[in-house]
Amino acid sequence: MKAVLASLFIGLLALASVSANAQDYEGNDCIACSASVAQLDILAQESRDNLNQKLAKMDDTQDITEGKIRAAMMNMIEAKLGQVDGMINDFGMTSDRALVDQILKEINLINRLIIEL
User: Fold this and answer.
1) Alpha helix (H) residue ranges in 18-96
2) Residue at 21 is within a domain
3) Using an 8 Å Cβ cutoff, are 53 and 77 in contact?
4) How many independent structural domains does the chain possess?
5) What is the pLDDT of residue 105?
6) Domain with 78 in it
7) Any idea what DSSP says for residue 59?
8) Residue 85 falls within a domain, yes or no?
9) Contact, 102 vs 20, CB < 8 A?
10) 108: left (phi over 0), alpha (psi -120 to 50) or beta
11) What is the tens place of the pLDDT at every residue in 35-94?
């Protein structure tokens, strides 16, 4: 069980490091991007709520290795949520469609990590 959790965690870390190729958009797409970022902000908040619910329901473990894996995953999720907040704040300065795509990718990764936690 420990090996499976460790393998899963390493695999999820590898997914987190993959970067997406994105295209540049201009004009009216920036308006659509702004609306998308507002929706992504809501999704990020829902992810936070899901994490808090998951943590509230999580049983304590006596297994040190499993506890360390859970702690590392929780730290990674919290770091990713902070990264998403930073990207959402950066959008106001750049209005870049690629940033919207990256934010969505990060939120999807966060949600997968929460499910695996």
Assistant:
1) 28-57, 64-94
2) no
3) no
4) 1
5) 86
6) 26-116
7) P
8) yes
9) yes
10) alpha
11) 666 788 888 888 888 888 887 877 776 777 777 888 888 888 888 888 888 888 777 666
